[in-house]
Specification:
Lambda Exonuclease, Chain A, six-stranded mixed sheet, binds iron/sulfur cluster
């Protein structure tokens, strides 16, 4: 039975933040502490937005000549790496695809960068434009996207088994592709992880902290009662 007083729609950002640190989740979503982003972070976010928009328009078949001309030099390198990637051999299905899907009685909402198809198998694509990227740093994103997109593609009868779905992270700075595969066992584990986090959010009012060596990079560092 769902508790009507608790939020029943979850985003990747919310679940990921709780997974990272329950105290951070509290500062952001419950205390609503406002933090002004550093200029460096703002610049990186602008580059990310420019490249995501450009790739999306290009994949949708629009004329991007003027957008490409307006790119900064670092952005041109990211665009070059995208254009020379092996993705060009896959079949484009959709990009900036927003979804709502029910998992274990809760609604998940999110958006993937792109979806491709190859020989009846589907591939979720996620562009990374930051200076460094490691699959370890996006473990929860991997979990969330694979479970949600599997449920959606299975419901549409596009695929029958988790192994027909993969997730590729494209590191546009390095020009490399990290391929993450999926199977029945991972599906069961990932789904359980998502539901466990939701259960903790709804039933753990103490919001303990996950004090780690990454705390100094946390944007709530100054507001954190544990430090
Ligand atoms: S500073 Fe560390 S313990 Fe505090 S909210 Fe951020 S990640 Fe959590």
């Amino acid at each position: 039975m769902l508790n009507k007083d608790k939020p029943q729609t979850y985003t990747l950002a919310k679940l990921q933040m709780y997974d990272e640190c329950p105290q951070k989740y509290k500062l952001c979503y419950i205390d609503k502490v406002h933090v002004v982003e550093k200029i460096q972070t703002q610049k990186a976010s602008k580059t990310g937005t420019n490249i995501h928009n450009l790739v999306n328009f290009y994949l949708k078949g629009m004329d991007v000549t003027k957008l490409v001309e307006s790119l900064s030099q670092p952005e041109k390198l990211l665009w070059h790496n995208f254009k020379n990637s092996e993705l060009q051999s896959l079949n484009y299905v959709d990009s900036e695809y927003s979804f709502n899907v029910r998992i274990g009685g809760y609604w998940m909402t999110g958006r993937i960068d792109a979806l491709f198809e190859s020989n009846g198998n589907y591939i979720i694509l996620d562009w990374k434009t930051g200076e460094t990227f490691s699959p370890e740093s996006v473990k929860f994103q991997t979990t969330f996207y694979l479970v949600c997109m599997y449920e959606i593609l299975k419901a549409k009868n596009y695929i029958k088994e988790p192994k027909q779905l993969s997730l590729y992270y494209m590191d546009l700075n390095a020009g490399s592709l990290v391929k993450i595969h999926f199977d029945e066992e991972l599906y069961t584990n990932y789904k359980a992880q998502i539901l466990e986090i939701i259960n903790k959010i709804n039933n753990n009012p103490s919001f303990y902290c996950n004090k780690t060596d990454k705390c100094k990079q946390c944007k709530y560092y100054r507001a954190c009662p544990y430090l």
